[in-house]
Design a protein that fits this description.
Layout lengths: L1 E3 L3 E2 L2 E2 L11 E4 L6 H6 L8 E6 L1 H5 L5 E4 L8 E5 L4 H8 L2 E5 L7
Antiparallel strand pairs: 1-5, 2-3, 4-7, 5-8, 6-7
Length: about 110
């Protein structure tokens, strides 16, 4: 999953990075996408993002979170994490991610 630098502080993803802007939290399944491909799919300024890894079993262990593979014509890796992302859920997600591509410290 891409994380824009605005959702990081001192190299740590903030809870606000884990949200449902379109009904589900958009991620890519690593089986079908590399971190670099995920980063390149950023609509604007890919260089302003990092990429985090979320282990499906850990995400599903968080209350009311499900993971569904939802491929798109242009992205067969697309996967949604569904379920309300209230403050508690977002905080739990900050405990189960790891960086694959670090976010920029000073994006240009």
């Amino acid at each position: 999953m891409r994380v824009h630098h605005q959702w990081t502080r001192n190299g740590i993803a903030l809870p606000g990075a884990f949200k449902d802007p379109d009904g589900g939290m958009s991620t890519d399944w690593a089986k079908y996408s590399t971190p670099e491909e995920t980063l390149r799919r950023a609509r604007k300024n890919p260089q302003n993002n990092g990429v985090v890894k979320l282990q499906v079993s850990k995400v599903r262990a968080i209350q009311n979170q499900t993971v569904n593979h939802t491929p798109e014509i242009t992205n067969r890796a697309h996967t949604d994490v569904l379920g309300v992302k209230d403050e508690e859920v977002r905080l739990k997600l900050t405990r189960v991610y790891s960086w694959i591509i670090d976010p920029p410290c000073d994006p240009s």
